Known about the structure:
Blueprint: E1 2-6, E2 13-17, E3 21-27, H1 30-35, E4 38-43, E5 47-51, E6 56-59, E7 67-71, E8 79-81, E9 88-92, E10 103-109, H2 114-126
Parallel strand pairs: 3-10
Antiparallel strand pairs: 1-2, 2-5, 3-4, 4-9, 6-7, 7-8, 8-9
Amino acid sequence: MIHKGGCHCGAVRFEVEAPAEIQASECNCSICSKSGYLHLIVPRPAFKLLSGQENLQTYRFNTGVAKHLFCKTCGIKSFYVPRSHPEGISVNVRCLDNSTIRSVHIEPFDGAHWEESIQKLKASHES
């Protein structure tokens, strides 16, 4: 299934290939909990930026591995390159257009204790 989505102002638009029944992760780390981010992690070939490359601003913190991409007009992070899967993309499920989503199942992820929790997250995306 191809889902489309984007930021609040519409400057950044993308599409992602994923099931209609989405398995998402809700992380409790500082940035995800403050922004309400719901992760749908996909391989890079499953993601396509349609518009807004010039509107993206990058933010890095802590280890600097994650590449947080925000729309510089509205401030929404609709996708980014995650520390857990630097070869993939994490799409914010809350930024997907609802028309193609059948259901969303949310699993908690203890990102506040990232080092202790990462193997469980990686294992769930390998199956």
